[in-house]
Write a structure and sequence with these properties.
Blueprint lengths: L11 H13 L3 H12 L10 H13 L3 H13 L7 H12 L4 H12 L3 H16 L7
Helix pairs in contact: 1-2, 2-3, 3-4, 4-5, 4-6, 5-6, 5-7
Length: 139
């Protein structure tokens, strides 16, 4: 329903319903997809809500979804749904970058341009600690 493929008409409300069911089962990509739906505006069917997007990205990130980690990092860079925080942004982007996510590599470079070397070191240490905790309680 989300993309209108396989003979189904695109229906964001129906997609959200199914993504919620999958998310309740711990499906990482469903959490990522919910975040993307709320980050983007879909008119009256699903209004844009950055706070909800961050919620779903964070849940996906904590389950190890590289896409959710990258998107959460980008939300921190832009200050959408969260207070702008380049250290947290870099941390999440560093984790996603290690999994080969190109967006994360680019975002990490953007964040680093505004950070001091000590902030970058702190963010890298936070990323290492986060990985050791299996991505739980990283924020």
């Amino acid at each position: 329903y989300g993309s209108g493929q396989q003979g189904l008409s695109q229906d964001h409300q129906e997609a959200v319903k199914w993504y919620h069911l999958a998310a309740a089962q711990g499906h990482r990509e469903a959490l990522l997809n919910l975040g993307m739906i709320y980050e983007q505006s879909h008119g009256q069917s699903i209004p844009q809500d950055y706070h909800k997007a961050v919620k779903w990205y964070r849940l996906g990130a904590e389950l190890g979804s590289a896409g959710a980690q990258a998107n959460l990092g980008m939300m921190y860079i832009r200050g959408f749904g969260v207070s702008r925080n380049l250290i947290r942004a870099y941390m999440w982007l560093d984790l996603a970058s290690a999994k080969g996510i190109g967006l994360a590599q680019q975002g990490r470079t953007v964040a680093a341009e505004e950070m001091t070397p000590s902030q970058i070191s702190k963010a890298k240490k936070m990323a290492e600690d986060c990985k050791l905790r299996n991505y739980k309680n990283c924020d």
